[in-house]
Amino acid sequence: MAPVKQGLAASHAVIHDTAIVDPSARIPASCRIGPYCTVAAGVEMGENCELLSHVVIGGPTRIGNHNRIFPFAAIGIEPQDLKYKGEPTRLEIGDHNVIREYVTISRGTQGGGGLTRVGSHTLIMAYTHIAHDCVIGNHVILANAATLGGHITVEDWAVVGALCPVHQFVRIGAHSYIGGGTTITQDVLPFSLTSAERDTHAFGLNKVGLERR
Fold first, then answer.
1. Which residues are annotated as catalytic?
2. Which residues contact 82 (CB under 8 A, 6 or more apart)?
3. pLDDT 10s per residue in the chain (213 long)?
4. Count of domains for the chain
5. Full domain range(s) for residue 182
6. CA 100 → CA 34, 76, 195, 205, distances in Å?
């Protein structure tokens, strides 16, 4: 590890020699950027963030405090929307999040308000995709390969199971739990259990999740 080159906002941050950090990126001294990471112009990181290795962060992106991002995640990249023509849009991520391997999170689009937002205390597991203009609440869990189309809202404490595709413009209610492998094409009720094994309908109350809280 070596100190970042003079001229960056983070003149004492610990940045690996192989990492590429744009001189305009704002990186506090408490951050650590591992091997082969790329941090673009327009990126602003909070205190005590760690990029383990091979992480790509595009901008404009603002990341809060105490976030850990694992290898091969691509954060703040251009949206996968044919209508996007390079307009200035952004991504905002809160505090105390864990973003695991191969996660992709796109910036917003002009037609969707220009902002993708992830809250705080979330666990975003490997291969998850969060598309443009999504709003993710606090204490959310997105299990492996959860795939969120554009303009989706996931409210606080919701859990989206592994291998779940979620259709654009859907709202997933607070404290709900979606079983693995469920295709979601309509809104999910708050506090509910939803599963493909039950014809993709809510079939009960998320009693375990509610008791834990």
1. 132-133, 150
2. none
3. 443 443 344 457 899 999 999 999 999 999 999 999 999 999 999 999 999 999 999 989 999 999 999 999 999 999 999 999 999 999 999 999 999 999 999 999 999 999 999 999 999 999 999 999 999 999 999 999 999 999 999 999 999 999 999 999 999 999 999 999 999 999 999 999 998 876 567 788 888 888 888
4. 1
5. 2-212
6. 15, 15, 24, 29
